[in-house]
UniProtKB/TrEMBL annotation:
The chain crosses the membrane at residues 18-40, 72-96, 108-130, 142-161. Belongs to the peptidase S54 family. GO terms for molecular function: serine-type endopeptidase activity. This is Rhomboid family intramembrane serine protease. It comes from Dyadobacter flavalbus. InterPro entries: DUF6576, Peptidase_S54_rhomboid_dom, Rhomboid-like_sf, Rhomboid_protease_S54. Its main location: membrane. GO terms for biological process: proteolysis. GO terms for cellular component: membrane. SUPFAM superfamilies: Rhomboid-like. Residues 270-302 form the DUF6576 domain. It is found in: Membrane.
Amino acid sequence: MSNIIDDVKREFAKSENALVKIILINTAVFLVLLLLKIILTLSQSSNVYYAVLDTLKLPASTNEFIHKPWTLLTYFFTHEDIFHILFNMLFLYWFGKLVDEYLGAKRVIALYMLGGIAGGVIYMVLYNVLPYFQSQIQDSRMLGASAAAFSVAVGASTLLPNYTFNLIFLGPIRIKFIALFYIILSLAQSLGENAGGNLSHLAGAVIGYVFIKLLQNGTDLGKPIYAIVNSWSRLFRKRPSMQVTYRERQVYRNTNVYSASSSGTIEAPDQIEIDSILDKISRSGYESLTREEKQKLFKASQQK
């Protein structure tokens, strides 16, 4: 058990594995809730479990949301069904790895957070504006990372539409078609039992598309998210060690999670570097590029 805890601590200590951290947080919340459900159900106090769960779900009613504003964030880190979290985390991992490789860790966080927030906002708007949902508003609540995962998936598909995944029984399929299939599936389910939730997935998809398109034109929607994450990380960062020798003081500081040297702010390559990267692609394909080469290629595309 201690080895597992140590492994988790090591993962959280790393600065460039945002995707793993998001998955670990979702998994930890799921396991805690599962354990709580088992304990409280066996002790015949299941009502306590559902009360705890309700504090994490996003309510459709704005009157209830006013008293629980934190649910706009907590809902997309919360799952109750094992297949729900399994699908969302696999979906997030497959597409998130591409965003991480080409754009850096901070863009994964931005896509995930903005997609989740947009999905939650649209969910409440739908239930409070459309007559179709009015009769269900008091009993409707949403949980799960689907909208956030959709944002990452569509973001990756917008960035690399012709990148292929090798799927079992189906073979190589371009990721733009995979993303399109799930968008159509959400639309098809938009009049079912979880209509508002399925439509909120589409809000995440729109955010993913807009985020990448604006980023390619030099506008980064994620800047407020980066600032909040950096401020949050500074609160929990250990004080830098200090060593004083004679009258000369040396201060050793940890680098910022998203410092100037991070992958998200890599310098634009010159034409020689671009030609070298393109030659490597023609010889060995996109998969042969290093993280830095992928990010340089994306940086070059922004200058066009």
